[in-house]
Specification:
Nuclear Transport Factor 2, Chain: A, 4 strands
Length: about 160
């Protein structure tokens, strides 16, 4: 009778040790720096997709709202440039009378510095120009963390055939 009780107590003890070790391992994994880095990378990817698409989208019937969205998607030097050139951009949109709807088809984070709050991405974009067809573009972009959000500080077109 003692052997079954001792075996049962031993099994309970082993199970308890295993549960404790599993809980500790889960806690370590859930709070590791690699998990935080992956979450930051995912946030940069989402923001990069959204903000690059925004800067490739504009409806001439709602140009003021579209240009405000451009400013909201940017910070730093890019924001300043867009603000400085807003009257020229408004005039160009009015003359062209073409609605553009950008969609990021692919994006990769090429650099991420979570301490400095900076990231660099590359992206391919499809811009639907209505009856004028579709354009495909490639960009490199730099993003900066502004509080909890990431915004574009630069957006540079990469010519087709460039390495």
């Amino acid at each position: 009778m003692r052997r079954p009780v001792a075996a049962a107590l031993g099994a309970v003890l082993v199970a308890g040790v295993f549960c404790g070790w599993s809980g500790w391992s889960y806690h370590q994994a859930a709070h590791s720096s690699s998990v935080r880095f992956a979450a930051a990378r995912d946030q940069v990817q989402r923001a990069g997709r959204q903000e690059i698409a925004t800067l490739n989208t504009l409806d001439p019937r709602q140009s003021d709202a579209g240009l405000r969205r451009w400013l909201d998607a940017s910070t730093g030097a890019l924001h300043d440039e867009l603000q400085r050139e807003s009257a020229q951009n408004r005039q160009k949109v009015a003359q062209a009378q073409v609605a553009a709807a950008g969609t990021v088809t692919d994006l990769a984070v090429t650099e991420l510095d979570t301490r400095a709050g900076t990231a660099q991405v590359i992206a391919t974009v499809q811009v639907d120009l209505g009856t004028r067809g579709t354009q495909r573009k490639r960009f490199t972009a730099v993003l900066a963390r502004t509080g909890k959000d990431w915004k574009l500080t630069s957006l540079t077109a990469v010519p087709v055939g460039a390495q």
